[in-house]
Known about the structure:
By secondary structure, this protein is α+β, with helices and mostly antiparallel strands.
Amino acid sequence: MTNFKIFSSIPQWRFWTALGFQLVLVFAIPSQAFYTYISGKTVILQTRPVDPYDWMRGYSQTLRYDISTEDNLKSLRGWEQLAQESEKKGDTFHKGKPFYVILEAPKTPSTQKPPLAWKAVAISAERPQNLPSNQVAIEGKMTNYGWWIDYGIETYYFPEAKRNEINAAIEQLQANQKGERPFVVEVKIDAGGNAVPVGLWIGEQYYRF
């Protein structure tokens, strides 16, 4: 009876406000991913080789991209300005401060398989506005280790049946390509720079996430 009285004494608006806040937290990330998937622009990213033992463990796989290393970004337009601004503020990329890499679509549309990857053309500390239709900005952060840049699209999960199929395709492709990995990933990037994975091309074979 005492517990019931205590519960009854709590104003209903406080109870529903607290519950609503918790629900917002629960659904915020899935909602963001859904919004990005629906509204985002389709972009193709070139992958980089990773340790073959790290490629697929259990039900997950790990990928890195051409834009995943700081060395590949240093040649981009805007890098020097970004570095100078960070130095003036006493900040570094290693603290996880977000920045934006501007990607540009291939100049000549192609129907080849796998499709051509988009190229990084510039980098900015602030999210660019009014980009042309053939460009999009993706948000990145330096990882705590300072070795890789994280775009939130590095780890994917597959059911076991699909995992085995992909492993077989990788082994066959590597045998034909002498160890090279001509893999590209299809992602969606929204106006805020958020990205979600859509599919993976292994040679001419396409796998949807």
